[in-house]
Specification:
Chain A is built from 10 helices and no strands. Chain A is mainly α. The radius of gyration of chain A is 25 Å and the shape is elongated. Chain A starts with 7 loop residues before the first helix and ends with a helix. Chain B contains 8 helices and no strands. The chains are: A mainly alpha, B mainly alpha.
Chain lengths: ~180, ~170
């Protein structure tokens, strides 16, 4: 396959259009993201699942009405559940503990694969832990940082947001509010 | 990239310094909307950062980088229903005033060139920008855009012909 030669006139005209470069704050955000260690989700998610389960059990036990005269031990409702239900809960916990699937660079991952994993454990085990921050709430927080002039924190948070939600399409208004100035 | 994957953060700095300006212009000139372009530009680098641990040498880093960028652009255009973005004038040369004739003519020529570049079909414009900004050859343009070499060469040839024509019109 023969290459096409560059046309010096076309190249010169193209160069004359300008030599734009990315703004320094975008450089800084990307370099900061590159310095962060990759998050290994397996261990923290396993710990989170265990903590959520333990807190759930403790809270359920604490909410059980005390029946002084009965000598029998209090049995947690989850332990009374049929075997099939207990098996299902176990599978959710195992799934939550698994490492996030690595999608190819070219194929954008399914949004569900990007959702914070502990949210699934919360759904399965009851509303024990605080709900994870939604993308909209996160963007509002960045916009607030931006409005307060905390540019560095806003840049880093925006970079992290884009890493976590690469396919999220924000509105023009929100883009204007969170964009580096 | 392999060094970065092994934990050498300075290696990423070197890669970034080398490729940031051409990649930025590649995205910017393809989209002609600075806000969207900057968002997409960052997304491309985030993909690079995320891929650090699984990067394998299968082609030149430049080809791989621009393949990611091209795919993100394709996603963008698909979401926009392949609608052509109008020339918004943000990067076009300023209007001609009372300048000397030669300078005014030069600005007009540049304005015609910018308009011709913006008016190219996206595939042809991408081929031209990959050639001009990234320095990719026909085979690499074909790889980055997922088409055959004949198609890539044809797109590039058409783009160059239209841009030459814009220059000749002056």
């Amino acid at each position: 396959m023969a290459e096409l030669d560059r046309d010096p006139r076309v190249s010169a005209a193209y160069r004359a259009l300008g030599a734009e470069r990315p703004p320094p704050e975008i450089d800084a955000a990307i370099l900061a993201a590159a310095r962060r260690r990759p998050v290994r989700w397996g261990v923290p998610v396993s710990i989170a699942a265990v903590v959520v389960l333990a807190v759930g059990v403790v809270m359920r036990v604490a909410q059980e009405p005390r029946r002084e005269p009965e000598p029998a031990a209090v049995v947690h409702p989850a332990l009374k559940a049929p075997a099939a239900e207990r098996k299902a809960a176990g599978s959710v916990a195992r799934e939550a503990a698994g490492p996030a699937a690595q999608a190819r660079d070219e194929a954008p991952p399914h949004p569900a694969a990007r959702a914070p994993v502990p949210a699934r454990a919360n759904i399965a085990l009851g509303k024990v832990a605080a709900a994870p921050e939604t993308p909209e709430h996160w963007l509002e927080r960045i916009a607030k940082l931006r409005a307060e002039g905390r540019s560095r924190e806003a840049d880093e948070s925006l970079a992290e947001f884009r890493r976590r939600f690469p396919d999220y399409r924000m509105s023009d208004e929100m883009r204007r509010r969170v964009a580096p100035r | 990239m392999l060094a970065y994957g092994r934990g050498d953060e300075a290696a990423f700095g070197t890669l970034y310094a080398r490729h940031k300006a051409p990649l930025y212009r590649f995205v910017l000139r393809n989209l002609r909307d600075r806000g969207v372009a900057e968002e997409l530009y960052q997304e491309v680098w985030m993909r690079v950062i995320e891929a650090r641990g699984r990067y394998r040498v299968q082609a030149k880093f430049t080809t791989w980088l621009y393949t990611i960028a091209q795919n993100r652009l394709a996603d963008h255009w698909r979401k926009r229903g392949l609608k052509l973005v109008e020339l918004d004038g943000a990067d076009a040369p300023a209007p001609v005033g009372d300048e000397p004739a030669a300078r005014a003519e030069g600005r007009q020529g540049l304005a015609r060139f910018a308009a011709a570049l913006a008016a190219l079909p996206e595939a042809q414009r991408a081929a031209f920008l990959l050639h001009e900004e990234a320095g990719l050859g026909v085979a690499e343009i074909a790889a980055a855009t997922g088409v055959g070499e004949e198609t890539a060469k044809s797109r590039l040839r058409y783009a160059l012909a239209k841009l030459r024509e814009a220059l000749a019109d002056g």
